[in-house]
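Bumping with the actual sequence this time:
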Amino acid sequence: MTAAPPKSPLQKRAEAMTEKSPHDLAREAEFVAFRAGGLEFCINIMSVREIRGWTPATAIPRAPSYIRGVINLRGVVLPIVDLGVRLGLPGTEPTARHVIIVAQMGDRAAGLLVDSVSDILSVEDTTIQPTPDVASNLARTFVRGVIAMDGRMISVITLEHVLPAMDLEAA
């Protein structure tokens, strides 16, 4: 009798999810955690289409300062948002070590230029704390809450506000 092959991390995660009741799953969400501008952020994993290495972008004249340009992603023109600049943090000078998170919100898609992707977080809704009152109105527009986990403070990004309607007529 041969031993069963070791289970992959994906198989282990699927088994763990099937062991939970539907009530538990309704209160739990998964987020992709990443670093931008020296801080930690996350977005809902359901908004992430793919994570890819840095690809130089073609600049768009008169685009907002947080738009690095556009790339060709399998025949689709994808705007690249420097997330640090968009959030009022220092800009990123991309290298081969930087990452683009391709995010989808409804019919809009954009690439988020970030320093690195760190992990996938599974958190219950009750774990997400509201954005502190000391934050500016602008910060509360971009950050819908904070997750305190393992000694880390991770801001939950509101993609709808980070990625404005791409009005390229002004460009």
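The tokens above came from a reply further down the thread. Confidence is low (pLDDT under 50) at residues 167-171.
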